[in-house]
Amino acid sequence: MCAFDSGLDSRLRGNDGEHWIGVQTPIARLKRPAETFLKATLDCLECIGTQALRAARLATPDETLQRRVLDACVSAVPGMDLARSPAALSLLVYETAQRVTGIADPYCEAKRAQNEMALAIEDELRALVRESAHPLDAALRLSAAGNIIDLGTMRVHEIDIQEAIAEVMRQRFSVDHSAAFEESLKRCKDLLFLLDNAGEIVFDKILIEELLKHTSVTAVVKAGPIINDAMMEDAEIVGLTRICEVIDNGGAFVGSPLDMVPEQFLARMRRADVIVGKGQGNYETIDDFPGDVFLILRAKCEVIARHMGVQYGQVALISTRTRAREAVRNGG
Q1: How far apart are CA 227 and CA 131, in angstroms?
Q2: What pLDDT, on a 0 to 100 scale, did the predictor assign at position 37?
Q3: 109-329: which CATH topology?
Q4: How is the chain split into domains, by residue range?
Q5: pTM (2 d.p.)
Q6: Distance from the CA of 325 to the CA of which of 114, 127, 137, 307 falls in 20 to 30 A?
């Protein structure tokens, strides 16, 4: 059973302890963030309502409560600041669903099922890497395939993990900075791996096993429940804690918003030689971090696809440094 949580409000604070997102705090009165590379668009505001209804229906069958979640989220849209990232704005949806329904983790049963599904094919995934002529490349692509497991943008019945695996093993990354990644890995002694979703964490475990042949790896989960993102419990269930250090990013965030995560976690990011961020949440929140950052994700919405420069549904391995150099060369 998913438990009631009376301490939801405390998980959504900025670096200085000030509240950033919450039904009790009007969006328009929130402190404005530092500039970020990816900004929300009008399409993101439309998506707030869609995410709210999806989260509400997963949390409770009570249509009265579902309507309260939807009304609260939609009524906040006029005050939402498009200078923030989509990930930061969407926090309202999940905090509202938790507060109104009293369910701390509406996605807990779905996460359990996703972990079981991925663990059932773990040996198959490992064999694909072992039998590949280029094991690291195969592990990177499998990690990207696992990024389809995202209940923030998709419904459970829309996820076909076997098709996603077959697709990425046939194709290259649509944006492929794997050469830059391999160069950085040669110099890396400390890699910080920001995980994304439950289930997907098994695919990332396969990649981390390959990375450990080259460098030390610390994996990062969320400190509290948010969508179907991986927490410490998930890392333990899939055996990730047995192969590398696992820490949390200090909150129940979508991604790791640089103006919201604790200073202690920011300091840990600064110490890393290389950072790998999985999924759209990390793409939206750490793409402007001044480090050697690599982002592995599938484009699961048109806004992100356009920003990535790919088609909807395509996967990419993006070096933020390489992309910045290319933008300078191209006059962007």
Answers
A1: 34
A2: 66
A3: Rossmann fold (3.40.50)
A4: 8-101, 109-329
A5: 0.85
A6: 137
